[in-house]
Amino acid sequence: MQRVLGKIITANELFNLIENGDKIAIGVSGGKDSMVLLYALSLLRNFLNFNFDIVGITLQLGFPDMDFTRIHDFCKAKNIEYHLIPTKVYDILSEKRDKNNKIQCSLCAKFKKGILINEAKKLACNKVAMAHHLDDGIETLFMNAIYNGYLASFKPKMYLDKENITFIRPLILCPEKDIISDALKNHLPIVKSTCVNDKKTSREKVKNWLNKDVYQKFPEARVNFPNMLLNKERVILWEEQKKD
Asked: Strands 23-27, 127-129: parallel, antiparallel or unpaired by DSSP?
């Protein structure tokens, strides 16, 4: 886990994500990203010169054939506090399908965020950690440009004043390939999503475009895209200058 831990420490130095006395709820979907984040933060407690607590939270959304027993056993073996929260998200999503009879990803994300925040606050957590990584950040930038007409990615750290809780993304500087590698090397338990939209989203289209086209033709983009997200001083966009 050295590469991932090193990237998390660098991200913490840049964005002040984890502080002394924090109690951090980690959203654990069961996928590789969230499992690497959970394990990495459990190890990180031994390296930082201050104290913080972590709590793993899995929302049992109701998708069929998803068993989180191995994650529960893993957390018990590693002395990580873990909570499996039953929800009715899948039932609600099934009732609120879009005009094409598909489950709405945006609605699912909204429900998950709200429930996770509520559960974190019940457990006296002051922060919620999500497992979005470097590739997610780059993909989000292009998704917003392509589908929404503006340039924006998610922030490494964001305080939600209405909820009085802070969202952090400790994997923000970690490439997905390092996460995949560490998940395999450490034999982390992975629960495959059974959502019918899995791997069929707009994000997946942008991911495939970047990996199979852009990075193949312009390999330097793998270095320059992360630099772009950190180089806010060099953003030059058009500004309207209306006549008086």
From this structure: parallel
Q: SS3 breakdown of the chain: % helix, strand, coil, rounded to 5?
A: 45, 10, 40
Count of CB atoms within 10 A of residue 30's CB? 18
- Cα–chain-centroid distance for residue 211? 19
Spacing of C-alpha 244 from chain mean position: 46
pTM assigned to the model: 0.93
2-232 belongs to which CATH class? alpha beta
Structure-token match 């959203």, residue found: 27
Phi, psi for residue 82 in degrees, rounded to 5: -145, 140
Q: Which helix (H) or strand (E) holds 127?
A: strand 127-129
SS3 22: coil
Type of residue numbered 27: G
What is the pLDDT at residue 150?
95
The model's confidence at residue 13, banded by pLDDT at 50, 70 and 90, is very high
Show the tokens assigned to 96.
């609120």
Between helix 2-15 and helix 32-44 the angle, nearest 10°, is 80
Cα separation values, 236 from 151, 228, 232, 239, 240, Å = 11, 12, 9, 9, 13
Map residue 83 onto helix, strand or coil: strand
